[in-house]
Write a structure and sequence with these properties.
single chain, alpha+beta, five-stranded mixed barrel, 5 strands
């Protein structure tokens, strides 16, 4: 019984990265965000880290970081073409407090 309690206590504290499949509904960026790009995905989203507390946006990335400009180009192209994407986060909210850091995305 003690082992079961420890097992339940351990797994109840785990958090899971957000992920999903769908279309990019909204992208927000601008000078006031210092290169940060915010994404809302319209589709089936699963998981959410406990740090995610901003209800509007699912993911954020830094367009000024290495690879960020290429990622921004892919995100904008996917939205304009209305392509489905697979997307996943890092289970952290370090780039912008309350919004999950983008780990990867794949355009179909």
């Amino acid at each position: 019984m003690v082992y079961l309690s420890v097992f339940i206590a351990f797994f109840s504290t785990l958090t899971f990265a957000g992920s999903g499949v769908g279309k990019i509904q909204r992208i927000e960026l601008g000078p006031m965000y210092n290169g940060k790009v915010f994404i809302i995905v319209e589709g089936v989203m699963e998981g959410q880290p406990t740090c995610r507390q901003q209800g509007n946006y699912h993911f954020v990335f830094d367009a000024e970081a290495p690879g960020g400009a290429a990622l921004l180009s892919v995100v904008l192209s996917a939205q304009v073409a209305q392509k489905n994407i697979h997307i996943s986060g890092y289970n952290t909210c370090n780039i912008y407090n309350g919004i999950e850091d983008l780990r990867w995305l794949r355009v179909e």
